[in-house]
Design goal:
It is a single chain. The chain is 42% helix and 20% strand. By secondary structure, it is α/β, with parallel strands linked by helices. It has 2 domains: 150 residues, HUPs (Rossmann fold); 142 residues, Rossmann fold (3-Layer(aba) Sandwich), CATH 3.40.50. The longest helix has 25 residues.
């Protein structure tokens, strides 16, 4: 993930993924968030709906026989949504037609967003049939998209101004470009930034009485603090209110739970996550991202770090 992904907000587009035929509550959540976002950035905001037989839940013959009617109905719904939203910089909605399989809905949206050089994709999720993500659409976006994804889950507060971003990190050099990215985002949103680091117990240390455990732990903490102070200086030079917190308790709390707990304790308005997408690290990195996207009390922005 390069720092320029979110750098030039005024020159790019945000794709707002909407389920045109979903309930009013779900659409209202997305509208409230996009209204807040549009007050701080100059991007064009484009509502996009992927129309397919799968998301309409009808028989194939009905779908293809009535496809023109579905398109017309979706256009009317989105036009009405745009008219009522009062969102700055919103442009004409786009209907994308997918005549393939269910999984192609996600690829259709991603490919279009890539063609449009979209800076981010914003998607709402909701509970249905015991599953959090509607047909796993938002979750599949997290898995497949190289474009940053902002997830609005059912418990996230979308009615507040984004004035405080929490960025979980280990302060390693490989995450320095991601730090540059979140700095650009914070600057664009006029938000303060908190860098949060949760110390983890290495796999080769089974307990605190393992050989060299305390030496390793103390050195690791000091190294993170040293890097954190350098990052803070960079943020201050950019005019950004920034601080860091290192959670040294390695024996309690899972990473995802601790990140959500911390973000809630400091009243964060957004969590900015970096998800590892290497063949080895993808499962573990994305599992934490998916957990946080499902349970956080604020919007979650997920970007991919390629190794």
């Amino acid at each position: 993930m390069k720092s320029e992904v979110l750098e030039n907000l005024s020159q790019k587009k945000v794709v707002w993924a909407i389920d045109a035929f979903s309930g009013v509550d779900l659409q209202d959540r997305g509208t409230q968030f996009m209204k807040q976002l549009s007050g701080y950035v100059d991007n064009q905001i484009e509502p996009v709906f992927v129309l397919s037989r799968e998301n309409m839940r009808v028989r194939s013959d009905f779908f293809y026989d009535w496809i023109d009617t579905y398109i017309s109905s979706a256009e009317d719904i989105l036009k009405d949504l745009v008219r009522k939203s009062h969102i700055r910089k919103i442009i004409k909605p786009k209907i994308l037609l997918n005549t393939g399989t269910k999984g192609d809905d996600v690829d259709t949206l991603i490919q279009y967003s890539q063609q449009q050089k979209a800076e981010a994709i914003v998607v709402s999720s909701h509970l249905e049939d015991g599953r959090l993500f509607h047909k796993s659409f938002a979750e599949q976006l997290l898995l497949r998209s190289t474009i940053p994804i902002v997830v609005l889950n059912p418990v996230a507060d979308v009615n507040v101004v984004i004035s405080h971003i929490v960025f979980p990190t280990d302060f390693s050099e490989e995450h320095r470009p991601d730090f540059e990215t979140v700095l650009s985002l914070a600057k664009s949103l006029h938000a303060k930034l908190t860098l949060y680091s949760k110390m983890q117990l290495p796999l080769y240390f089974t307990h605190e009485h393992s050989p060299f455990f305390h030496i390793y732990f103390e050195e690791e903490v000091e190294q993170r603090k040293e890097s954190a102070n350098q990052w803070i200086d960079k943020a201050k030079n950019e005019g950004i209110d920034c601080k860091f917190v290192i959670n040294e308790n390695i024996f309690t709390g899972k990473s995802g739970e601790e990140i959500i707990k911390f973000a809630d304790s400091v009243n964060a308005d957004m969590i900015f996550l970096v998800s590892k997408t290497s063949p080895v690290g993808a499962f573990f990195g994305l599992s934490i991202s998916r957990y946080i996207a499902r349970h956080a009390f604020c919007p979650v922005c997920v970007v991919h770090h390629h190794f």
